[in-house]
Fold each of these.
Amino acid sequence: MQSASSDECARVVVVTGASSGIGLATALAAARHGDHVVLFARGLAALQVAATACEGAGAASSRLLCVDVRDAAAVQDAVRTVLQWHGHIDAVVHSAGVVAYGRFEDVPPEVFDRVITTNVLGPANVVRAVLPGMRQRGTGAIVVLGSLLGRIAAPHMSAYAVSKWAVRSLVRHLQVENRDLPGVTISCLSPGGVDTPIYLQAANYLGHVGRPPPPVLSPEKVAAAALRLIDHPRRNVEVGATNRLVTLGFAVLPRLYDAIVTPLFDVAATDRRHPTPAGPGNVLQPTPEAYRLHGDQGSAVHSILAGVRSRLLGPPDS
Ligand SMILES: NC(=O)c1ccc[n+]([C@@H]2O[C@H](COP(=O)([O-])OP(=O)(O)OC[C@H]3O[C@@H](n4cnc5c(N)ncnc54)[C@H](OP(=O)(O)O)[C@@H]3O)[C@@H](O)[C@H]2O)c1
């Protein structure tokens, strides 16, 4: 898919996980900026919708490639295709990621493994494929989505949190190794809770759905931070008013943190009003019917009140 208004001067921006949430918001923001956007995700249908929206938003061109970021060879092929189309890549925003909810021993091993491989090997494969071209040109920006959970521990999200700690480590090591490339920047962008569909399409072995804990960010705000990092690179950027406070509490008061994190998580980061059957969600394969820009889970206040009520009185059906 390519729009008529192709512009030789426009940047070439690759966005992974571009069919939903933060990736979709980033692709749309780049499109509004007039960039050439190339959208990666596994599922074709949602990518087509996203590419059409990017065209409408003003992209110099909008193309898509179905690629599973876990597959190193497929990622290499996809990046080769982008280079054939555009000759170079100016920036990559790696947003593809999946979540699993449940106690460690309740999450099936194949789901746990898939969260780790998607979230850790995914960015490794993408960086491995794009870095040589950027090294050759001496310029380029890579932004990898981390998470507040890459700095702290949270109950019932072990696979995801382990993967995001690894993402932060991967980016940190890449920053050390590529100090000889001042024009090539690698940034880790770590939001707190963002209103995207990820919570509803996550693998879930908890019994009720997860939700973004307040203060809830919009995907547009995180996308704006990602685009800012392309122009004004920084090594690590946190988005979320309480990220630093939570991280500080985790580091400085570990015993207090451990004592309060599970009740706080139950109340603020899950929604007891919405029971859900156990299943892998979009972890093993895409769930395109759920993909869109926002999560639209409604008021955090009502959800938190339901969480408090169920902790005090027990679940509604008990
Ligand atoms: N939402 C939050 O509160 C939050 C907070 C902190 C960090 N983050 C991070 O931000 C990133 C985006 O999250 P989101 O909330 O925007 O998620 P989302 O709405 O669920 O979107 C996930 C995107 O990733 C794609 N994807 C999943 N597995 C893939 C794979 N193996 N290969 C290629 N693409 C894949 C999905 O498309 P297909 O299924 O079609 O592949 C979809 O486009 C993630 O890395 C997440 O960890 C999110």
Amino acid sequence: MKGASKTLFLALSLTLITVVHYTTRTDDPHIYFVHVIFANLYLVPIVFSAYWFGLLGGLLVAAASVILYAPHVILQWPGSAMDRASQAGTMALFLLVGLAAGHLSSMEKRERLRAERAEARSQRRAIATAITTLEQALKVRDSYTRKHSERTATLSMALAKRLGLHEAECEAIWLAALMHDVGKIGVRDDILLKPEQLTDKEMEMVRKHPVIAEQILKPIKGIEPVVAAVRAHHENYDGTGYPLGLKGEQIPFGAQVLAVADTFSALTDDRIYHRHEEVGEALRTMETMAGNKLNPRLFDEFKEMITETVSEVDSQQSYESGTHENRNG
Ligand SMILES: [Fe+2]
Ligand SMILES: [Fe+2]
């Protein structure tokens, strides 16, 4: 039940109980006990409200019940001190039940939240340990891929933040970028480290790395979006990528962000099998990929981000060389 439906349920039940309570006769002993039952029915919305909304919810509905009940005491039991005392006891009971049920419910909610947080913390620790282990394995196997992955992770995170994504989404993209080529652990050394152009057969082996990565990462619970992004990091925006040939928005968004950073990182890294490109040259190469390999909107945002960073670094350097010259001069 949603919050609005809960509030509606409480309002309707309070109204209904008030109507039947006020309209049930009090002068006939056979009907009187029904009247008393109706009075105690106020406890139902009080307990429900406490369960749903905690201490404040319990007290609010208890107070509303007292306000709705009190005129009945004044109007229908004039002058009867004993009865009034009993009715006052009923109202005190409303408040007491609201307080106790609300307090218990709030305590239970706090406890549940604490347990959930502890569980999330231990899960994060387990994920971090698993990721560190994989990173170490990657470092031993192929230090280039590790460096490339760290760089891709930094760039992906920066782009994700710039796009205004939630912290959890940014973190998932960062993790996916860090692990995106972990499947290369499963590619033979003579292919992975070959300086020359790969043959079609060898290329086919390399192209298995997103699926191998998925198999490696899948047992780690709680990182499903990360695994989805890793598996899809070689899907192309126009549907010509692999392993599934997903197109446009079919590709997980994290994978689209990662693909942009991965391409830039691959173009500008010093790789065994091709020389690195300068930043401007890399961006020009990527421009030809926008719309086919890469999401054009994400590329534009990435280009802007890199251009801003480069001009910041340039101005910082020219400032530093300027102060240096002044000092020398
Ligand atoms: Fe890859
Ligand atoms: Fe990569």
